[in-house]
Amino acid sequence: MTLVFQSPLFGIALTFFTFEVGLYLNKRFKSPFLNPIIIATIMCIAILQVGNIPLASYQVGGDFLSMLIFPATTCLAVAVYVQLPLLKKYFIPILIGCSVGATVSITSVLLFSKWFNVTDQLTKSLLPKSVTTAIALELSSLLQGEPSLTVMAVILTGFVGILFAPLLIKIFRIKDPIIQGLAIGTSSHVIGTSQAIEMGPIQGAMSGIAIFVTGVVTVILLVAF
């Protein structure tokens, strides 16, 4: 049995299996709280804990999947190219919105870190929390943060976007699909974009554009930092 857990196929198979379960539950119950990524994450942790399976065994295959994050992120360029007319039409609002969002994200981390006396390394690990994983990991390494903490922060940020974006849109009565998508993409990157796509094609398109622009702005701000 140990040989099975040490095989790269174990981590890959577990990831795909739990994600498929998440997809089924999401389609069956239509609840934002049953997002496939959230379900897959919880199930993976539970299976590893209950089965007393070392994390290192899962990572043999999990790290292989992680490598796909970087080429997948480059596909954002394709999404932006497809939506180039929207980007050109709303370039100034998009640039201003994403710049403000990136600035607020970075500033909030710095302020909370100061108030709660957070270590310098943890602060640097949390700074790229609102951009997609591939960009966040590179920024974390550049700032000498801890990549594992950065990934956790990115995932939690995306989860918050999935769970609360629809509620906040209703509370503040935001009816413009362009603003909805832009807000979700700016604050909760790729994970939140999955929610934006469910809301509508315009929301999904604007969220995808926001991921790209927010990533670029965040890189500029943190490199300057």
How would you portray this structure in words?
The chain is mainly alpha-helical. The protein has two domains: 2-67, no CATH class; 73-224, no CATH class. It is built from 13 helices and no strands. It has helices at residues 2-6, 8-29, 36-50, 55-67, 69-74, 76-82, 84-89, 91-115, 120-126, 133-142, 147-171, 177-199, 201-224. α11 (147-171) packs across α12. The termini are far apart. The model has no long low-confidence stretch (mean pLDDT 88).
Radius of gyration: 18 Å
Low-confidence stretches: none
| Structural class by helix and strand composition | mainly alpha
How much of the sequence is in beta strands?
Answer: under 5%
Give the strand tally: 0
Q: How confident overall, as mean pLDDT? A: 88
Tally of DSSP helical segments: 13
List the helices and strands and how they pair.
Elements: H1 2-6, H2 8-29, H3 36-50, H4 55-67, H5 69-74, H6 76-82, H7 84-89, H8 91-115, H9 120-126, H10 133-142, H11 147-171, H12 177-199, H13 201-224
Helix pairs in contact: 2-3, 2-4, 6-13, 8-12, 8-13, 10-11, 11-12, 12-13
Which descriptors would you attach to this protein?
225 residues; mainly alpha; 2 domains; globular
